[in-house]
Amino acid sequence: MNAEEFYDAARGNRLVAVIRAGSPEEAVQKSLRALEAGIQLVEIACTTPKAAEAIRAVKQKAPLVGAGTVLTTRDADAVLEAGAEFVLGPNFSREVRDLLRDRGVVYIPGVFTPSDVGLCQMAGLTTLKLFPAATGGIPHLRALREPFVGLSWIPTGGITWDAVDDWLKAGALAVGMGSALFQHPDLPTRISRLKEEWA
């Protein structure tokens, strides 16, 4: 999956399920639950034990599974071998960027400061993960968007359901949601409404 394909998928879904788990079995279970609710972009964090194993299993059920918390080229190699279609990191790594560019896989690094954003922009990256999003909040996203035009943003980290629409109104392409994701009492209906309202 290249950057343009990921952009289209994110714009159509508006939400990335961030899956963190204590075991690969739990990660698969959570991923399938998200997919059944209508979420099409699932990111399995490398902090999950045997994350590549979980990615491989979920890949059999859904094509748009990616990897998160990818810090090193070793991490990247492992998740790509497992079938990850996109890769996110909490930070920017030039080595990871180079490897993924050579493989034709989209890389979405985490940024927080203007310097972070500038480095990524100079590296040719156009979709960035604002992380941790809740630390600076929506005003922080608005402040970064003003000087750095032409970039797409996926705020992640501490986002709750009551703030999703506000993040999207502030210009986010999509939001990444982890621990709060499954706290919604009617997840399928909420996902359906999200797609309809932000189509």
Q: In this structure, how is the largest beta sheet organized?
A: 4 strands, parallel
Could you state the order of secondary-structure elements as H and E? Answer: HEHEHEHEHEEHEHEHEH
What is the percentage of strand-forming residues?
A: 15-25%
Structural class label: alpha/beta
Low-confidence residue ranges: none
| Number of self-contained structural domains | 1
CATH class: Alpha Beta
Counting DSSP E segments of at least 2 residues, the number of strands comes to 9
Just name the CATH architecture: Alpha-Beta Barrel
The amount of helix comes to 40-55%
Can you tell me about this structure?
46% of the residues lie in helices and 15% in strands. It has 199 residues and is of the alpha/beta class. It has a single domain (3-192), classed as Aldolase class I (TIM Barrel), CATH 3.20.20. The longest helix has 13 residues, at 24-36. The mean pLDDT is 97.
How are the SSEs placed, and which strands pair?
Layout lengths: L2 H11 L1 E5 L4 H13 L5 E4 L5 H9 L5 E4 L4 H10 L3 E3 L5 H10 L2 E3 L1 E2 L2 H9 L4 E4 L2 H13 L6 E2 L10 H6 L5 E3 L9 H11 L2
Parallel strand pairs: 1-2, 1-9, 2-3, 4-5, 6-7, 7-8
Helix pairs in contact: 2-3, 3-4
Short description:
The protein contains 9 helices and 9 strands. The protein has 199 residues and is of the alpha/beta class. The strands form 3 sheets. Strands 3-2-1-9 form a 4-stranded parallel beta sheet.
